[in-house]
Amino acid sequence: MEPTGTVKSSVINLVKTIVGAGMLAIPYAFRSDGVLVGVLLVLLAASTSAFGLFVLAKCSKTLIHPRNSSFFSLCMLTYPSLSPLFDLAMITQCFGVGLSYLVLIGDLFPGLFGGPRELWIFGSAAIVVPLCLLKKLDSLKYSSVIGLFALAYLSLLVISTFVYDYSTDHYHDVRGNVTWLKIYDSKGLVSTFSIIIFAYTGSMNLFSIANELKDNSLANLTAVINRSVAIATVIFLSVALSGYLTFGSKTLGNIMLNYDPTSIWVHIGKFCLGSMVVLTFPLLFHPCRIAVNNLCVWFQMRRATALSENNSHREESGPLSATTPSSARPISLSVQDTESASLANSYGATLGQEEIDLEVGNGSPPVDMPDSRFYIITALLLTSMYGLALNVTSFATVLAVVGATGSTSISFTLPGLFGYKLIGTDYLAAGKLVPAKELFYKRCSILLVWFGIGVMVLSLYVIYAYGAE
């Protein structure tokens, strides 16, 4: 398929991927953090997430065919034996959050229009299924625009309520304590830290955006990332500050619960929230389906490698060794020049030669998804997700574990590992010294890995110590 994405449409899809229902929980995090620490944590989350996205974009450029980039292709190039674990992390993240969205649909719409929750969950399939059948992420840009309008209304509702309450001094009646410079609740700070960090999760669709962008140069990808994260940060800070300064220490976990449930504006806001959730679901489903397909391809490759071993009786070191037939290994790289290899090792790189090949076998895409498999995976995933949503009303702890493991893996740990392995290899391939800036990115990639591990450990500790709310 020809690339059709533009910078504008890519920004729309990435913003919509990042900004979801979790936005409404950020004011609650500010209740514990206070204004200063809350703002600093938002900026920390924005900068680390943006760097993770940038590293993924930069690593995609090390491939001979950058439009074939994916988590799977980079995993098979750098850590082939761990590739299925990384895909499982992606599936866990997208499946868990998507399932929570279906449950949220069943919670929201019955309160607005009546009827059983099961009817609304099942009825959402009329919109969700056709959108999930679209093969290209760029095809979702129009539904993302509608979702952004719903998002804009929710943001304006929070901001306008804050402005109205302050202009009429009504905030004295509804607001609790507000802390500007100090931390209000240290225990709450630890337990809500992950709310802000996970709010920026959007890396699951970065490669699809890079592959479908007409001009997918690193400069264009960087522009998409910077603009998307900047827009998301403005939205998060506006909602967080307005919501927190309106209700102070009385801010609830979902800011919508603080507003008058009988107000027509709140009803419209809840409808917009439900609509936003329905339209965000396909953006999570798209990378989930890709990850499931990646697992299928990985098992096919393992089977082909095993057959090759039996037929040729040749000793192999792994699924992507030099003796594996090209048809069984979609990604290969060879080291031909020992002097360049020594130069690469001196810079901590793992590859070196006069011409480093990061090639896709026979010039074909590294991960193929035939139409039959596309529809089978789509049907199985949708059936399982809707089946669980119809029978489960609350799985807060499971969702918290999903965020702690899946979100940190795809946002920080994986990008950092890829960056450490691949950044600078394009210079080595041309027989050039790695510039200081590239070495800086490589070192920062390692810091990103440790940051992701730290966030995961802290989040799991919070789940164990305090429980998921």
Automatic annotation (TrEMBL):
GO cellular component: fungal-type vacuole membrane
Gene Ontology MF terms: L-arginine transmembrane transporter activity; L-glutamate transmembrane transporter activity; L-histidine transmembrane transporter activity; L-lysine transmembrane transporter activity; L-serine transmembrane transporter activity; L-tyrosine transmembrane transporter activity
Transmembrane segments: 12-30, 36-57, 117-134, 146-164, 189-209, 221-244, 264-285, 374-392, 398-423, 444-466
Main location: membrane
All residue ranges annotated as the Amino acid transporter transmembrane domain in the record: 4-457
Region span, Disordered: 310-329
Stretches with biased composition (Polar residues): 320-329
Keywords: Membrane, Transmembrane, Transmembrane helix, Vacuole
Subcellular location, record wording: Vacuole membrane
Membrane topology according to the record: Multi-pass membrane protein
Similarity annotation: Belongs to the amino acid/polyamine transporter 2 family.
Protein name, as recorded: ZYBA0S04-06084g1_1
Originating organism: Zygosaccharomyces bailii (strain CLIB 213 / ATCC 58445 / CBS 680 / BCRC 21525 / NBRC 1098 / NCYC 1416 / NRRL Y-2227)
